[in-house]
Amino acid sequence: MGTKYGYIRVSSADQNIERQEDALRRVGILENNLFIDKQSGKDFSRPAYQRLVNKCLEGDVIFIDSIDRLGRNYQEILGEWRILTKEKQVDIVVLDMPILDTRSTLAKEDLTKTFVADLVLQILSYVAEKERQDIRRRQVQGIAAAKARGVKFGNPGIPIPENFTEVVSSWRSKKITLNEALSILGVSRSYFYDKVKKLCL
Q: Are residues 175 and 121 in the same domain?
């Protein structure tokens, strides 16, 4: 049995990692085997993730809370998954999607189960990237529409945080509470609602 590692990623330094930490601790990941990145998942140029990959040996297991914590770029997720599982012979466990667990002997021997797992991975990777692209597109469209209505951005006032649209999306889908959204963005309730309204988010 190899070493069990946990990987955590949030999009910004202000986001809370406790939920992911709790999920990984429940499956027995030790504190010194947790690797945490606080940056975008658009690619794999992340310091903690790279340290984790370099440290992993054949037979080790990487646990992640959900596939979008690994990344949001469809092709890169698939490529990285194959490098870890095929080349380095490292197992991966996605906690919220039990079918994405490469530890199972059956998963390695049963071609049908392997095919289904690979198919699910491709679908989830695609969805993760599509969500990232949609967030970016909605933000651009929202800002353009607001400018067309004469809304002024920047000074005077607080500039809109870079991750504003992504946080609003998480709030609307009930992944985070309003208070968590305000804490992540570092803005007031009135500012938050005002910008949501102006950007038509």
A: no
